[in-house]
Design goal:
Elements: H1 2-31, E1 44-47, E2 50-56, E3 65-69, H2 70-120, E4 125-130, E5 137-141, H3 143-169, H4 175-255
Antiparallel strand pairs: 1-2, 2-3, 4-5
Helix pairs in contact: 2-4, 3-4
Amino acid sequence: MLNKLTKKIAPIGLMAVVLIAGVASPVHAAVVKQGAACAKSGAKAKAGKNSYVCQKNPTTTSAKLVWITTDCTTAAKTYTATKKDSDNFSAEQAAAIVKMTASVASWKNVVVLLDQKKAALETNLYPLWTDPTTKQMVKAIGITSAIAQLTTKVADITAKRDNAVKQAASTTVSATDKANWTKAATGYATSVTTYQRNLDNLIKIGPKIDTDRARAASQIITMQTQLDASSTAQAELVSQVTAGAKAALNYRNVACKAGI
């Protein structure tokens, strides 16, 4: 009786063992696959052709430890480095454009200031000389008037200097008069030099402003051309670098896909 019962139970027991064995193998295989939970950070495993490491999934913010393929970790590192380079490059290019734009704006401001300075030449008050009788400063409104008055003054003193030189050279004057005329000629000559210097300085102001303005305008054209070219080129480069980062992200997502 016992033997008969044993014979009946044995196949059932064997079937149960087979079923348990059949179930255990898939469960064990399910443990070591990408996205499956694992217990020890840094633990390594191998299943089929894939090598795994136990760590946080780089594609999520979850702190849960899961099995990740080495391809996934490599792709994640590549994406992180590529994204960092892309962000840095984009920031550097944006900063360069901002700097160039600011430079163009600065030169435009220079042009505005020079135009204002040129316009003010005809409204400024210019001190010319002190009147020997009234002891008051003779002034002119506007640079054109100042130049005209100084030109007249230089011509007048030059004539007096020439006359004094002529009188000092005359053979009909006494030694005392000769000395006085010579001294007067020297004084007039000094005055001519002083007034001529002041006149020359006034004459140079307008052309100097024009030269500076032309240089500033040229700088604006040059820098604006560079800015336009840089903006176009950098936009393309930034697009290419950004596309590279997106491609690295896509590769990471594929490499880190659960179930591998």
